[in-house]
Design goal:
two-stranded antiparallel sheet; 5 helices; alpha+beta; 27% strand; five-stranded mixed β-sheet
Amino acid sequence: MPLEITVKRIGKPLQKVAERTYEVFYDKNRRWAAEQLWECIIEECPKPPKNKWATGDLVNWLRANKSRCIKFTKEKGMRRIVRINIEEAPDITFIVSRCRPHIIRPRFKRYLHFFKEGKEFFIRHEVHHPGKSANNFLYRAARRYSARYLAKIA
């Protein structure tokens, strides 16, 4: 399932093409539009917790792989578009889609080992994970970009 924003020259300010695929448009310079949209994605991206055991820092991955995610292409004719695809980001499916409550059990070892608030825990049996709601930051970034774009035009 693609997680992308397409930037075209004509169209509605913000349009949902498919599930988790959006279209926005630009006026003159597509590289400038891609930079502005990338800044909006970085601003809306969920930040990691402020402890030293936190893993999965999506913001730093996005900053490091900017050139890999942004593609400048041409469609039929002279239409030039920009595709921003963050499908390869680590743990992106767990961030964008919701996670239901479930039980975590040790599979290969005898104990579960994890850190919480700076303390180390070992649990022998199971842990009840409370679940997590969906965080569609890609839509919020597209909405923020289109609001900036419309403010610039007006």
